[in-house]
Amino acid sequence: MDLGDMRETYGLGELLEEQVDADPVKQFGHWLAQAADAGLHEPNAMVLATADADGKPSARTVLLKGLDERGLVFYTNQQSRKADDLAANPACALVFPWHAMERQVRVEGTATKLPSDEVDAYFASRPRGSQLGAWASQQSQPVDSREELDLQYESYERQWPEGTEISTPYFWGGYRIEPATFEFWQGRTGRLHDRLQYKRSGATWQLQRLQP
Fold first, then answer.
1. What is the pLDDT of residues 95-126, one digit of tens each?
2. Catalytic residue selected from 103, 191, 195, 209
3. CA distances, 209 to each of 16, 59, 102 (Å)
4. How far apart are CA 99 and CA 187, in angstroms?
5. pLDDT band at 41; cut points 50, 70, 90
6. pTM
7. How large is the average pLDDT for residues 31-60?
8. Alpha-carbon distance 12 to 149, whole Å?
9. Is 106 a known active-site residue?
10. How many Å is the maximal CA-CA distance in the chain?
């Protein structure tokens, strides 16, 4: 396999200033809906990049579970590495890699914890297996074997039999990322890709084109 010869020629679309909404949250909503309509697998999957107190970076994929004018929402174990990073340094970045559409969206902003009522409402909407999994996993911590993890899950199955309400774990929660910048990227021929960046300026957004 020659990595140097692995390349694609882009050309499915264009991204011009007159084609986008003045509000990047609305523009993102348009693109997210188009990605879902196109049948992309998990179009709400996003790479979350964080850094700890010493600036050491870390990245992983999480799922977008809320979007409005206040920001982008995801949920996680708050004893995980990502939660430790955000506690020390709430600045973070997101990437939505919609390769099949030759698009990506980058977001930079600041994360804050969601209030408990929003967390409880979302947790109650999750499938039972996901609720039990949240209790069973001490996310990011070592475990001796898969068997031990399965046993932890089974113990919570016994604690909450089918049909009983499962409470939100005390260590589980959510974050809202208030965006400071959005960048919309559309692949173009000759690697002259379209990049439109929105940058927050007070209560408004400033739009500019970036060179590829």
1. 999 999 999 999 999 999 999 999 999 999 99
2. 191
3. 9, 27, 18
4. 9
5. very high
6. 0.94
7. 98
8. 45
9. no
10. 59
